[in-house]
Amino acid sequence: MTKWYQTQGEYSDIVLSSRIRLARNIKNIPFNNKLTSEQRKQINKSVKQALANINLGDNKLKFIDMSSLSDFERYELVEKHSISIEFAKNPKDRMLVLSEDLGISIMVNEEDHIRIQVLNSGLELNKAYEICNMLDDVINEVLPYAYDEKLGYLTSCPSNLGTGLRASVMLHLPGLESTGLISRLSSAVSKLGLTIRGTYGEGSKVLGSVYQLSNQITLGITEKSAIENLQNVVMQVIESEKRAQEMLAKDKTALEDKVYRSLGTLKYARVMSSKELVENISNVRLGVCMGIIKDVPINILNELTMTTGTAGICAMENKELSPAQRDLIRAKTVREKLNG
Amino acid sequence: MTKWYQTQGEYSDIVLSSRIRLARNIKNIPFNNKLTSEQRKQINKSVKQALANINLGDNKLKFIDMSSLSDFERYELVEKHSISIEFAKNPKDRMLVLSEDLGISIMVNEEDHIRIQVLNSGLELNKAYEICNMLDDVINEVLPYAYDEKLGYLTSCPSNLGTGLRASVMLHLPGLESTGLISRLSSAVSKLGLTIRGTYGEGSKVLGSVYQLSNQITLGITEKSAIENLQNVVMQVIESEKRAQEMLAKDKTALEDKVYRSLGTLKYARVMSSKELVENISNVRLGVCMGIIKDVPINILNELTMTTGTAGICAMENKELSPAQRDLIRAKTVREKLNG
């Protein structure tokens, strides 16, 4: 079955993905950190039962005992944004509900009893929310949630209290980054209850110009208005990015040279680190976005980003690999994908 | 008509070209630096007459008044090794006899009255000498040379006295260079009356690993034995280079990565300096020589090297161009040639 990241959505040239996540806990059961192993196993069982009769068409759900997975299988799920790193680190008594297209993932016994997450390609927050909401209702019908009339959904961490909703989008912002406008954007969105941060790399250097924009406020607001707020800001960021890219286009030759050299490197290199891949994919994506490169589909770039991380490469070969072995397979994978 | 550098000769993977040059002066006429403009013009006329009835098949000779050429036309001939830089600098009263395939060039009124040169692709010293010798005889029949029974041919500079012959080959030696064996080779060949030096770049850094190996001795030796001596040493250098390349092949992955990245850059870059071109062509040539790259013919690499210098690019557009304009056209030329 086609994975979510192999498809394209709205504004896919700038928006890599949209994600909605709901944090939920079952009524009259203590939060996870107070539970015994037995109690956690019972929650896994109950969630599985609650979802037993759900109909998602071809997109079947799998119920995965996290401790049955190898290290690289768990971290591959992190790299594909299906689970949190915290969930991968401690697999004991944890269950993952995962759809065939990897777009739906429900972490059971993460920080909260239940974390429902839906991922989509492009700017598709409402579509993701719809599915999330449906799953939320199905589970809630069998397992009543811990809910307070005044506070809303009760969550293990107070930062999620209320809607328990985190909505986020992954954005490719090379224009805003290289024109230095990104820092201004950062302070502007924080005033609107949002936060923006780099997704790859450490410290000030953001690898591949990929940023995550997400809501911070969960109290005193409805789920729908939180999503609407984020959606509106994203639309403005897209506009700003387009304007910034027009500024870059003033030195058309240098820009074309940069994006095509990256394409040449991706198509020809025999050894490629993860860092170099992310940087070259970023340049090629910019080239596609600006209409310079016409024969590389955006979804191939998304797929390469999602599948060629450290664990993703090991998963391809189904074994642990040294960094040198990974760099070799990564380069080969990229070449084969881009050369058709 | 196909140019000499568009063809391939013996050992073309390592030997770029072979060159024979004869320095000759006409009997009873002072050396060039003592001549009037009138006398020089008379020499031009005499050489033209001497060659009027020569039959070289389709490879017709053109008689070019050097002062009729633009700056970039003259320096294009230098870049293609048809004439010396000294000949290009002062075009007044000088004539060039040039064959259609650019393989034969006779500089009239250079340092000596007549300099006959034949260039071939690959290791083809004997073939070049044969043609040189034939041209030498044809001219000598009409214009008796200054010749001394004891000293041989008399030349303007004593370093050419005797045979007046300079034989040289251009070699691509990335293996000997990167294993550090090139300096040992340099002292070894000097004991055999030969000299080796880098052809591009300044000081110790030789661009593109291209070296010229040539004879130094012209006195007390026949033309044929000078050529034979050079030919023998070249064969040994080729063997050493092959062994050095086998050493490089021990880190096959790094080598493949380097040569393919260069191919990718040549095929995709939109801006390329002359220096970068020479370096990338060198890597690709190494890849072809070692059987890593199979779909790039050596003669295309030779042609790109010969035609994309500063003056060559201007000649393509038939006008003076800025460095930025040249880098753009150079990249385009390379792309088109390599992408078929």
Topology at a glance:
The structure is a homodimer of 340-residue chains.
Chain A: E1 15-24, H1 37-50, E2 61-65, H2 71-79, H3 85-89, E3 95-99, E4 104-108, E5 114-121, H4 125-142, E6 147-148, E7 152-153, E8 165-172, H5 174-178, H6 182-190, E9 194-198, E10 210-215, H7 223-248, H8 252-268, H9 274-289, H10 298-307, H11 310-317, H12 323-338
Antiparallel strand pairs in A: 1-5, 1-8, 2-3, 3-4, 4-5, 6-7, 8-10, 9-10
What attributes characterize this protein structure?
homodimer; 340 residues; alpha+beta; two-stranded antiparallel ribbon
The radius of gyration over CA of chain A amounts to: 21 Å
Roughly what fraction of the amino acids of chain A lie in strands?
Answer: 15-25%
Largest sheet of chain A: 8 strands, antiparallel
Mean pLDDT of chain A: 95
What is the largest interface, and how many residues per chain?
A: A-B, 17 and 17 residues
Order of helices and strands of chain A: EHEHHEEEHEEEHHEEHHHHHH
Helix content of chain A: 40-55%
List low-confidence stretches of chain A. Answer: none
End-to-end separation of chain A: 20 Å
Q: Which strands sit side by side, in order, in the main sheet of chain A?
A: 2-3-4-5-1-8-10-9
Gross geometry of chain A: globular
- Quaternary state reads homodimer
Compute the number of helices of chain A.
12
Class computed from helices, strands and strand pairing of chain A: alpha+beta
